[in-house]
Amino acid sequence: MDIAAQITARAARIEEKIRPFMPRQQGLQQTVLDAMDYSVFAGGKRLRPMLMEAAYELFGGEGEEIYPFMAAMEMIHTYSLVHDDLPAMDNDEYRRGKKTTHAVYGEAMAILAGDALLNYAYETVANELCRHPENEKLPKAFAVLASKAGIYGMIGGQVVDVESEKKAQTVDREKLDFIYRLKTSALIEASLKIGAILAGATEEEASLLEEAGTKLGLAFQIRDDILDVTGTLEILGKPIGSDGRNEKSTYVTFEGIEQAKKDVERLSAEAVSILEQCGGNHAFLKELFLFLINREK
Amino acid sequence: MDIAAQITARAARIEEKIRPFMPRQQGLQQTVLDAMDYSVFAGGKRLRPMLMEAAYELFGGEGEEIYPFMAAMEMIHTYSLVHDDLPAMDNDEYRRGKKTTHAVYGEAMAILAGDALLNYAYETVANELCRHPENEKLPKAFAVLASKAGIYGMIGGQVVDVESEKKAQTVDREKLDFIYRLKTSALIEASLKIGAILAGATEEEASLLEEAGTKLGLAFQIRDDILDVTGTLEILGKPIGSDGRNEKSTYVTFEGIEQAKKDVERLSAEAVSILEQCGGNHAFLKELFLFLINREK
């Protein structure tokens, strides 16, 4: 099975692992439960839980405690998309070819569904901690999740990104790096680090894998910027540079497309080299890294 | 010192206990840190952390582990107000005589500041759990907080409330009770229960205090409905019933003002009676209950 097929098969399996952690009880608050379910199962690639599980396996993890964290991670990723798409934010009507949550359920319910997913992620973690109060790895994994999702992680990156767009501030290189590291890399770092922690990796190993996540996230984001330009080239038949002065600044704007490609290569090699230092069976995780970084769409 | 003065003094002290748990590091995400700070310190009465601390003291609690939970509770209460006030929700420009968060920082930043406060509440709890992984009361308190703040707690009540308003659905008595119990009582129940749990109360005692919270929350909300009517009476010089058919249905609409007053009395007596069953020094908590239920504004 090639890596694309492996990833598709894994994603389907992960969805079935996540599903039991979603709230299912029916009640008067049915609409928000529907909106949560719609948002989570609207076709994500499950990359973050996939990275978490692969990191767990890399360090020999064999238990069940990874599943609530995989589910919580996907809930947090999903809430961030639901709130990002809101009219007051990016105002997107479609995502992955489907109507966004507010387009289907209205703005108020989308705000509440996002809040509910974020809170339910921690409710899921809390239940696991209560079931296994003796497992001292769980509070550590919880702290990594909360920290990487918050103001010094994903939300922090989102704030600077929103401000840059709304105020039409010039994004300087420092801000761009900050946004990429927090908005894109933080949850990827968290996924890899939580997998390592729960499998019983040492602190040093967990930090190494976190660093691989930083590089993977950055390479992934730069690759995105490159695909935006080459995609635009194909569609418009002219280079973006010719009329791109009002476009959002990206890595490509600062470094040029050739340098951006080189940097993706370099970051990719560094991330893989870290994986190799970790020992264990890193075959799948390495292929997953390379697939994400070298994707064509 | 009378109870009103005691409460004011306690609130000031609680604010100083909460402050060190707020994020203080400066960075590119400064705006959201400012918005979080503005929202939390815009003049709340700190009732939920006050109830939590008083419940902790009732059961002889003397440690420091209550403070992060008091801070987390206030962050969660605050985020719920910030999101409630948004244009897509209640669209309020002022709260407690001050501009609401979105009125000052814009809608996008208010959404993010709310998300950030909710997440940071759990980050605060996670840090406490990592500091004391041996303390098995902490995961229990965490689970109560997450559950009462979520879809089977506060958010669930908020969802049904928003739907009732937006769709102009008739609120039947079942829905009204559901909204009051979840939207108003849930965090009060959580505050009392967490205080009890952290002080080492038995499960039975913690559940008793939770039940007192249900009654206190309900009485508090009905008292609010009564004050709405008597306030309107004073302003308009005519009873609300005469032109109140398009008004939002409240407990007073269903039961009439005299019955509502009797029910506040009954609920209040029941809540106090539960307190007395718990033993310990319940003097302050009892006075606080009665003050909240019998307030004139």
What does this protein structure show overall?
The structure is a homodimer of 297-residue chains. Chain A has 13 helices and 2 strands. The first copy, chain A, is globular, with a radius of gyration of 19 Å. The longest helix of chain A is centred in the last third of the chain and has 34 residues, at 203-236. The first copy, chain A, is mostly helical. At the A-B interface, helix 2, helix 6, helix 7, helix 8 and helix 9 of A face helix 2, helix 6, helix 7, helix 8 and helix 9 of B.
Please name the defining characteristics of this protein:
homodimer, 297 residues, mainly alpha, two-stranded antiparallel sheet, 13 helices, 2 strands, globular
Secondary structure elements and their pairing?
2 copies of one chain form a homodimer.
Chain A: H1 3-18, H2 30-40, H3 47-58, H4 66-84, E1 94-95, E2 98-99, H5 101-105, H6 107-131, H7 137-149, H8 154-166, H9 173-198, H10 203-236, H11 251-255, H12 257-277, H13 283-294
Antiparallel strand pairs in A: 1-2
Helix pairs in contact in A: 2-6, 3-4, 3-9, 4-6, 4-9, 7-9, 8-9, 9-10, 10-12, 10-13, 12-13
